[in-house]
């Protein structure tokens, strides 16, 4: 498992370093570069499935830690997938806007053309709808990112709570041990007190009998 884990982690870092090249890649090659990155991300997802199986087969004392490490890799690669999807969405929106602009500029109108306002209105409406759709997608992605951050915070909180519960359990275990010792000492003191009372009574009986 360790070999596959380190190999997958290295591939994630490689994809992260290459994501910055998307903005500088020319338009003719950007599609091929996107496909290459998507193929590498798909390969990482496949390796994560194998890692999940291997983590479930780890010894009980190491299984939880192994699953947490795999979950962290899953979070990282999902972030890469989201970033690639955002770039593709922005690129597609730019291409559509440029195409619409070129069609609008290449259209020839006359002063008496009654249909002049119709294509312009349709283009403005289309751009408005496209902008609104883009904003809604950004809102959804922002909400998804907030949810993921919330889940990570909850995981940290649960880990802290678990540790506190273990500390309390250990403290209770110590308290139970102390209570058992106290109860044992109390029983011993009870027998000692009874033996002392019997010895005192015996001495008093012998003294009275001797004096009489």
From TrEMBL:
Protein family according to the UniProt entry: Belongs to the GOSR2 family.
Pfam family, one: V-SNARE_C
Compartments where located: Endoplasmic reticulum membrane; Golgi apparatus, cis-Golgi network membrane
Key words of the record: Acetylation, Coiled coil, Endoplasmic reticulum, Golgi apparatus, Membrane, Protein transport, Receptor, Transmembrane, Transmembrane helix, Transport
Organism this protein belongs to: Triplophysa rosa
Transmembrane regions: 191-211
Membrane topology, record value: Single-pass type IV membrane protein
Gene3D superfamilies: 1.20.5.110, t-snare proteins
GO BP terms: intra-Golgi vesicle-mediated transport; protein transport; vesicle fusion
Cellular component annotations (GO), alphabetically ordered: endoplasmic reticulum membrane; ER to Golgi transport vesicle membrane; Golgi apparatus; late endosome membrane; SNARE complex
Descriptive protein name: Golgi SNAP receptor complex member 2
A molecular function GO annotation: SNARE binding
Primary role: Involved in transport of proteins from the cis/medial-Golgi to the trans-Golgi network.
Species classification: Eukaryota, Metazoa, Chordata, Craniata, Vertebrata
């Amino acid at each position: 498992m360790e070999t596959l884990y380190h190999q997958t982690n290295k591939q994630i870092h490689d994809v992260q370093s290459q994501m910055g090249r998307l903005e500088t890649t020319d338009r003719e090659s950007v599609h091929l570069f996107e496909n290459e990155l998507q193929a590498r991300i798909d390969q990482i997802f496949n390796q994560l499935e194998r890692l999940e199986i291997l983590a479930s087969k780890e010894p009980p004392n190491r299984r939880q830690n192994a699953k947490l490490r795999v979950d962290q890799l899953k979070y990282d690669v999902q972030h890469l997938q989201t970033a690639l999807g955002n770039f593709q969405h922005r690129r597609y929106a730019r291409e559509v806007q440029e195409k619409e602009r070129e069609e609008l500029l290449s259209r020839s109108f006359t002063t008496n053309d009654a249909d002049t306002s119709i294509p312009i209105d349709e283009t403005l409406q289309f751009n408005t709808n496209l902008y609104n759709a883009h904003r809604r997608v950004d809102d959804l992605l922002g909400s998804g990112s907030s949810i993921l951050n919330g889940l990570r915070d909850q995981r940290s909180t649960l880990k802290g709570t678990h540790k506190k519960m273990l500390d309390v359990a250990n403290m209770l275990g110590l308290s139970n041990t102390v209570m058992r010792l106290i109860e044992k000492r109390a029983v011993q003191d009870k027998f000692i007190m009874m033996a002392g009372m019997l010895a005192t009574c015996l001495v008093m009986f012998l003294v009275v009998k001797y004096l009489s």
